[in-house]
Design brief:
Elements: E1 28-33, E2 36-41, E3 54-58, E4 60-62, E5 66-70, E6 76-86, H1 90-94, E7 99-107, E8 117-120, E9 128-133, E10 138-142, H2 149-156, H3 173-176, E11 184-187, H4 199-207, E12 211-217, E13 240-245, H5 246-254, E14 258-261, H6 262-280, E15 287-288, H7 292-295, H8 302-316, E16 320-325, E17 340-344, H9 351-360, H10 363-373, E18 384-388
Parallel strand pairs: 1-18, 3-12, 3-14, 4-11, 14-17, 15-16
Antiparallel strand pairs: 1-2, 5-6, 5-8, 6-7, 7-10, 8-9, 9-10, 12-13, 13-16, 17-18
Helix pairs in contact: 5-8, 6-8
């Protein structure tokens, strides 16, 4: 049994970064390796990355996913878009020109009747919404303009900041809460470990022979859900969509010194291993379940598993693997895919902190105590760390 309480610590409000720094790469960097820590500025991260390593990044782009609607009675209904339902493809849904259906989180849902049409609060003629499945939280969105859904969202939606920032979204967040390499729209939260990177940082890495590779995991709102179960294994992990191109897969296979940028990238890299195991066992569900790593044994090396994925992609004629994961990376899990992890500092009792423990073991306690005592800034807009596997 893994107890939630074992991952508790006191996080003072003063240590939570409510706003980003003016310059992304001015954030502080804590480097942990061989049981020792040292501090620097993130702009110097190349000095600590192994030469010829591969830095793997999540290029997901945050969408303005929060919408406010109003019933005829005046009650406000808040909708947070989670993932497309009809059409199920992100690309097709964003290109829709009259209607699409999404799975959502719905605020004040008790006041919204089944099949009741409601309209946008500040511009009722723009778009309407109808609740078509309360249990699954499925909402149908309709509009009469010829705009694509993505263009419409850009004009009416609000960027959803993490709830722990405890402030309203501001205009500048539309820029600062995106990585400079964000491409694939669909996330409701930024892969925040990537927020520190700048063109100058990438240039300095390139000069040292460090390559970069991209993949996509659309971060869902489940990443913010607190762990309520005393036994962490009972916590529900929400399914998240990811994709990896054949080009990126080849990069991953050909370089065994990999550094994941953020917990989202590490979740994809580890999920890829278990997908490869599925293919090796003639299964192709394209889903890694929450406890699969603890229920399935495999002697495959990481590279061998990736070759099984590559064979599947070539056999099926696809150049981009699309799959989903619910993987739960717990403290006793040993990552197979990376040498190190670049990540921010996380909330107490969170699944993200438990993932950190899989990388550095119980040393997370000393690392976090040190970070707090030295006034590192925590959470999405906070400082960074480079953690080497123990």
């Amino acid at each position: 049994m893994i107890k939630k309480s074992d991952f508790n610590f006191d996080l003072p409000e003063a240590n939570i970064a409510k706003y980003p720094l003016s310059n992304r790469d001015d954030s502080r960097l804590l480097v942990y390796r061989d049981g020792k820590s040292e501090y620097d500025s993130f702009k110097n991260i190349k000095e600590y990355l192994p030469a010829n390593s591969l830095v793997v990044m999540n290029n997901a782009k945050v969408i303005p996913a929060r919408l406010y609607f109003k019933r005829v009675s005046g009650a406000t209904i808040e909708i947070l878009l989670l993932e497309p339902y009809i059409p199920a493809s992100y690309e097709e849904s964003f290109n829709s020109t009259s209607t699409c259906t999404w799975k959502c989180i719905i605020g004040n849902s008790k006041k919204w009747k089944d099949n009741e049409v409601i309209h946008l609060s500040n511009n009722p003629e723009t778009i309407s919404a109808m609740l078509i499945d309360r249990g699954e939280r499925i909402v149908e969105l309709s509009w009469s303009s010829k705009e694509s859904f993505t263009d419409l969202l850009d004009s009416i939606g609000e960027l959803p900041l993490p709830p722990y920032l405890n402030r309203a979204t501001e205009a500048n967040d539309a820029l600062t809460y995106q990585t400079v390499f964000a491409k694939n729209a669909g996330s409701v939260a930024a892969p925040t470990a990537g927020l520190h990177f700048t063109p100058a940082v990438f240039d300095s890495m390139s000069q040292k022979g460090i390559e970069t590779s991209e993949l996509t995991l659309h971060v869902g709102a489940g990443t913010f859900l607190p762990v309520k179960a005393d036994n962490v294994e009972d916590h529900e992990m929400h399914r998240e969509y990811f994709e990896v191109t054949l080009h990126s897969l080849n990069q991953i296979i050909n370089n065994n010194v990999r550094v994941a940028v953020g917990t989202t990238s590490l979740r994809v890299l580890e999920s890829l291993y278990w997908l490869g195991v599925q293919f090796a066992n003639n299964k192709n569900g394209l889903l890694v379940t929450k406890m699969e790593p603890y229920e399935v044994t495999s002697a495959l090396s990481y590279e061998e598993s990736m070759e099984h994925i590559k064979t599947y992609m070539k056999t099926t004629g696809i150049v981009t693997l699309q799959a989903s994961t619910e993987i739960m990376i717990l403290p006793h899990y040993v990552p197979r895919s990376v040498t190190a992890l670049i990540t921010n500092f996380h909330l107490p009792e969170s699944t993200l902190l438990m993932l950190i423990a899989s990388v550095v073991g119980d040393s997370w306690k000393a690392i976090y105590t040190e970070a707090l005592q030295n006034y590192f800034r925590f959470l999405s807009y906070g400082d960074s760390s480079l953690l080497f596997l123990q």
